[in-house]
Amino acid sequence: MQDSAEEPYVLTGADSISAFLAADVHEYGDAVTSLGSAIAVKLLSKTRVDDADYGIYSHRIGNLWLASTQLAFTLTPCGGPVTTVIC
Fold first, then answer.
1. Which residues contact 23 (CB under 8 A, 6 or more apart)?
2. H-state helical runs in 1-87
């Protein structure tokens, strides 16, 4: 791959955030689910949402917030076993 001013690089730490960015959503209320190291749900919100009791936390994305949770806390990591069963 050649470096180009037209092809920016985006680095993230979590596979679910990478999946969200790859989905190219921009409107609040848009949501993305992904299956990686865990089953994750990411939702764009106008306001920050944090609730430790439910494992919900937020990241700032531009003017919006990315409310996030993982649905498989007890099964994490579940991505590998699930794809093994499906494939």
1. 32
2. 15-23, 79-86
What are the residue ranges spanned by the domains of the chain? Answer: 15-86
Tokens 């409310």 correspond to: 67
Q: What is the pLDDT, as a whole number, of residue 87?
A: 47
Closest CA relative to residue 40, chosen from 8, 9, 7, 14: 14
For position 3, what pLDDT does the model report? Answer: 56
Residue 40: CB partners within 8 Å, gap ≥ 6? Answer: 14, 16, 19, 33, 34, 68, 69, 70, 71
Q: What is the mean pLDDT of residues 56-64?
A: 90
| DSSP conformation letters of 15-50 | HHHHHHHHHT--STT-EEEEESSSEEEEEEESS---
Neighbours of 22 (CB within 10 A): 12
pLDDT at position 21: 85
